């Protein structure tokens, strides 16, 4: 009887001990889970509070190594939309007069360099309008001297360039491209590539001489359209001897040179693919010719507007990203619509530093 009572007592004691142990374990686990949950919540709160200030390097490295990452090797910065010409097919028209303060522009250019930019091309509008070319000159000097970019280039209509600019900034410039669509003055005037009685062709030849004198590679850009598609330009191109002659097919962009809110009406300048090909065939013996059809142009350029936003032209209009000054290059460039394969296919990467061209000045 005594033994039986003792066994019962031991069983009860064991049950009490097991119950106490279970309670202790449950309480401990609850505290652990609670602490973990609070830590996770605190971490989320911290990340939200400091979003945009704290860089997650592991994720950034992973994105940088992913196949979808775009490197801004060559960038076209249209820092102004203002222009003294009125070319009828212009697809970057003067919809605003905004120009970034130069310190902000330099900050954006530095961000691009840190993201892999090797070549910068300044365009407009007419880039020599701002501060009579000094604004542009300071950016050119900054990119070559401070950022040490391999290539710095400009696209201009050539009408406002003076020799004093070359004396001051020429050493920092690799390539100067002058837009010229015809070697007939009347045709240039019909297109809108003129200002008053000034001769566009005189300016072209004058700038070509300055480029040679101040050791800047000279380039010509031509937009082939309904007014010049039958023209034979071979003799003039041979005489001017540019390092590259970029020949574009007239391109229509909704909201810029076509559509309800456009400042231009480019439809009358449009040519067919076959007309463009006929022009190329006629000039096929020009070795410096670089053709660019609408298909090649539309998504093979990285274009920054005056707010330093990338412009996506894939849908036949210019859809802007957020500014790289606000969200950084990596975030903004994802909305650029840039096709790197087409960029390489059209010859977008070439010998673009004048130090490597071995030109006979």
TrEMBL record:
It holds the Pfam family Radical_SAM. One of its GO terms (cellular component) is lipid droplet. One of its GO terms (biological process) is defense response to virus. The keyword Secreted does not apply. Residues 69-289 form the Radical SAM core domain. InterPro entries: Aldolase_TIM, Elp3/MiaA/NifB-like_rSAM, RSAD2, RSAD2/Viperin_antiviral, rSAM, rSAM_sf. One of its GO terms (molecular function) is catalytic activity. It is a peripheral membrane protein. Its main location: endoplasmic reticulum. It is found in: Endoplasmic reticulum membrane. Its cofactor is [4Fe-4S] cluster. It comes from the Eukaryota. PROSITE patterns: RADICAL_SAM. Keywords: 4Fe-4S, Antiviral defense, Endoplasmic reticulum, Immunity, Innate immunity, Iron, Iron-sulfur, Membrane, Metal-binding, S-adenosyl-L-methionine. Belongs to the radical SAM superfamily. RSAD2 family. This is S-adenosylmethionine-dependent nucleotide dehydratase RSAD2. It comes from Albula goreensis.
